[in-house]
Amino acid sequence: MFNDIEQAAPTACMREEIAMKLYMNAAACSLSPHIVCRELGLDIELVEVDRKTHRTSDGRDYLAINGNGYVPALMLDDGKVLTEGPAIAQFLADSVPQGAAMLPEVGNLRRNEVQSYLNFISAELHKPMVLLFEPAYASVHERIRAQVSKRLSWLSGRFAGPYLTGEAFTVADAYLFVCLNWSPWTEINLKQWPALHGFMARVAARPKVREALRAEDLEAFDADGVYFAPNAYLASSDWTGVPVQP
């Protein structure tokens, strides 16, 4: 999402039973499984990927890890690699007993509800919003933005509680938070949907989400403290917002 960001230093959560590497870019969609790891207390090493060279911060050719070249990718301690953020998030939640809070067990309809939101966010928000960063699609940006706004209007009326499916913060909420964090750069004003703006504030206040933001050197820059960008980006851009420490 952002260019010219600083390399994230490898960091770890508390749990030691599962050693994994998460290949990521700061504030990109890889922040979603990173948040899930933090929430679940899973051991994770962050490995930054250079978008231009596809070299990793530990000296590898990222294209040999994920031939598509984009993040995230999750490498397990046996060398197996899982790609695609929603699949990674579900794997992480299923890997430990406490993960049922973020993704209910198989056979529970709430699991399918969470998966439905994961699919919706991926298809209807994530990919269209990415196109709004691409100059090659400038001629259709207004049409894309209108379609995304339509989806956000629908989504804003779907909250079953403080989070999408109720009281529990799920893997779908982590994914939604990351995608909505791109709103200032896509010229989408979330304040027209109070439910979504309030959701951003609630998620940003979660202690484990704060840990993930700090680990990726992300800083809040808007007056409400709900949007985050890499410090290096803020320092090198002409963005005029006053940073708010998370």
From TrEMBL:
Presence of keyword Protein biosynthesis: no
Keyword Transferase annotated: yes
EC number assigned by the record: 2.5.1.18
CDD domains given in the database record: GST_C_Beta, GST_N_Beta
Keywords attached to this entry: Transferase
Domain (GST C-terminal) ranges: 107-234
InterPro entries, alphabetized: Glutathione-S-Trfase_C-like (IPR010987), Glutathione-S-Trfase_C_sf (IPR036282), Glutathione_S-Trfase (IPR040079), Glutathione_S-Trfase_N (IPR004045), GST_C (IPR004046), Thioredoxin-like_sf (IPR036249)
Molecular functions per Gene Ontology: glutathione transferase activity
Domain spans labelled GST N-terminal: 17-100
SUPFAM superfamilies: GST C-terminal domain-like, Thioredoxin-like
Entry-linked Pfam families: GST_C (PF00043), GST_N_2 (PF13409)
Protein name per the record: Glutathione S-transferase
